[in-house]
Amino acid sequence: MDERNVINGVGAVVLSEFIDFLYPLRFFLLAAVVLVLVDLRFGIEAAKFRKEKIRKSRAGRRTINKMVDYLCWILLAGALDKAFGIPFDIPLLPALVLLVVYGFEINSCYGNYFEAHGKKVKVNVFKLFAKKTDIIEVEEKKDGKCE
């Protein structure tokens, strides 16, 4: 009986520390789930537009893989915050790391959305931070007309 109490106590301490670590990152986790599901939806629409066969097993596998990847990035951002952000007083370090990672996913969502609607448009959210503020580029056909 005493062994069970010790194991439960150690488990509670370790789990409470892990929850304290994840609590500030909860909205990043929510954003990752939303971005992956939006990209899945628009990716399926884009594949239907291209008349590709939709394989649920592959889509599910890629979606779960993305979720695991984003969980790893979120944990890394949290660890960087604990290691460098707090000691060097950089409170936005996890947000900056995840802004870059989520930027690629946002580009993918926009690309799939416009492709599903038959438009040749490239979106680069990173141009928001450059001198050029226009993040949308419409690709022209060879005859010079826009789609």
TrEMBL record:
<keyword id="KW-0472">Membrane</keyword>
<dbReference type="GO" id="GO:0016020">
    <property type="term" value="C:membrane"/>
</dbReference>
<feature type="transmembrane region" description="Helical">
    <location>
        <begin position="21"/>
        <end position="42"/>
    </location>
</feature>
<keyword id="KW-1133">Transmembrane helix</keyword>
<protein>
    <recommendedName>
        <fullName>Holin</fullName>
    </recommendedName>
</protein>
<feature type="transmembrane region" description="Helical">
    <location>
        <begin position="92"/>
        <end position="113"/>
    </location>
</feature>
<dbReference type="InterPro" id="IPR006480">
    <property type="entry name" value="Phage_holin_4_1"/>
</dbReference>
<keyword id="KW-0812">Transmembrane</keyword>
<dbReference type="Pfam" id="PF05105">
    <property type="entry name" value="Phage_holin_4_1"/>
</dbReference>
